[in-house]
Amino acid sequence: EFVNSLERYDPSTNEWEEETVAPMPTPRRYVRTAALDGKLYAAGGVSEADNLAAPNLVERYDLATNAWEAVTPMATARASHAMAVLDGRLYAAGGHNDDEDGHTSYLTSVERYDPATNAWEAV
């Protein structure tokens, strides 16, 4: 199932609840998220529009404005990858991508996003 909703975990109640926020513009599965500088980034994944090939799409959610916006896409399209934040930058590592014929490529590359320059670079 492709989804565009957001859920929040409350450790004080040990429960998940669906957030009432603007829906993510591009419904995806196998997308990875990370919080950086008070914003939530959703990177890669698989969308119906891409015929199951992973997009390099990155969208950013701002809680203050309750709005999503597209930022510079990753250099490499990937799904089921690792995402992490370190020293004010967002890292995307590994994952996989499928070509038009359904052949899966497993990735070993790592790239990092700098929100100050809105740019990705290989690591």
UniProtKB/TrEMBL annotation:
<dbReference type="InterPro" id="IPR006652">
    <property type="entry name" value="Kelch_1"/>
</dbReference>
<feature type="region of interest" description="Disordered">
    <location>
        <begin position="1"/>
        <end position="21"/>
    </location>
</feature>
<dbReference type="Pfam" id="PF24681">
    <property type="entry name" value="Kelch_KLHDC2_KLHL20_DRC7"/>
</dbReference>
<dbReference type="InterPro" id="IPR015915">
    <property type="entry name" value="Kelch-typ_b-propeller"/>
</dbReference>
<dbReference type="InterPro" id="IPR052392">
    <property type="entry name" value="Kelch-BTB_domain-containing"/>
</dbReference>
<protein>
    <recommendedName>
        <fullName>Galactose oxidase</fullName>
    </recommendedName>
</protein>
